[in-house]
Amino acid sequence: MILKHVPSVRFLAISAPLLFANPLFAQDEGAQEKPGFLEDVVANAGLIGGLIVLMSVVALALIIENFMSIKREKIAPPDLLDEIEALFEGEDFQEAVELCENEKNYMTNVVGAGLSKLGHEFETMQNSIREMQTEESVKLFQKIGWLSLISAIAPMMGLFGTVTGMFTTFGTIAASGGNVSPAKLAGGIKGALVTTMLGLSVAIPVGIAFFVMRNRVIRTSTEVNAITEDLFERFRSK
Q1: Which residues contact 133 (CB under 8 A, 6 or more apart)?
Q2: Is residue 151 part of a domain?
Q3: Which of 154, 159, 166, 184 would be 202's cystine partner, CB 3.0–4.6 Å?
């Protein structure tokens, strides 16, 4: 009855919940406007963080290229191996030399090195083969060596970015006489730690990829070396 005869009281009773709801709506809108994790990382990465991201792109390209090129089918194609074996069986060594010169890969370079000493003692041929095997293996290790370099440099760059960011943050504190809000201090430290997180995020998977590719190089080169040495065993008795 009182609310019916007092319009202003009725207005307040109806509008009060809306007045309390406005801060809640504002808080929800603020929560929605909060940047996501990736956006937050990008915003605080800085120049060093950008360089680390660029390194990750280069590392990914190297991993894909090495994965596609360092395998048995590439360094010793089966069809080419069958053709070389047929030429050896027919003792058509001159044509085998020409084939090795035209088709350049790990296996043909090793076979060509052995055929270049044709007519010499078997030990001389064997030494030439093994020297070329070592040279070709070094080339493969050099290819994957860039992954090892990136996995070593990435965390160092991340640490450098963190140290630089902390230096700047504490410099700001010193310049303001210590009158810095905890929120601002925490934001500066968070930005400094972003580069370390990025560096580790690159170093860990790239280091694993290097370990996998190194084992693949050892396995495939050992297999191809055994195949080429078996081809030249026929010259041992001669």
Answers
A1: 110, 221, 225, 228
A2: yes
A3: 154
Straight-line distance from the first to the last Cα atom of the chain, in angstroms, rounded to the nearest whole number: 124
The residue with tokens 């007045």 is 19
Q: Which residue has the tokens 């990435």?
A: 154
Q: What is the pTM of this model?
A: 0.73
Residues constituting the chain: 238
Look up residue 189 and give its two tokens. 């430290």
CA-closest candidate to residue 193, choices 167, 171, 161, 168: 161
On whether residue 14 sits in a domain, the answer given is: no
Q: For 129-187, write each residue's pLDDT tens digit.
A: 999 999 999 999 999 999 999 999 999 988 888 888 777 777 767 777 667 666 666 66
For tokens 């044709």, what's the residue?
A: 118
Given a contact cutoff of 8 angstroms between Cβ atoms, the answer to whether 133 and 227 are in contact is no
Question: What are the Cα distances from residue 110, in Å, to 118, 126, 135, 229, 234?
Answer: 13, 10, 9, 9, 16
What are the C-alpha distances in Å from 21 to residues 8, 10, 24, 28, 185?
A: 20, 18, 5, 11, 32
57-61, long-range: CB < 8 A, 24+ apart: 58/150, 59/147, 59/150, 59/151, 59/202, 59/206, 59/209
Cα separation, 150 vs 203, in Å, equals 7
Residue 153 lies in domain: 46-235
Does residue 18 belong to any structural domain of this protein?
no
30 part of a folded domain: no
Q: What angle do CA 176, 180, 185 make, to 5 degrees?
A: 120
| Tally of domains in the chain | 1
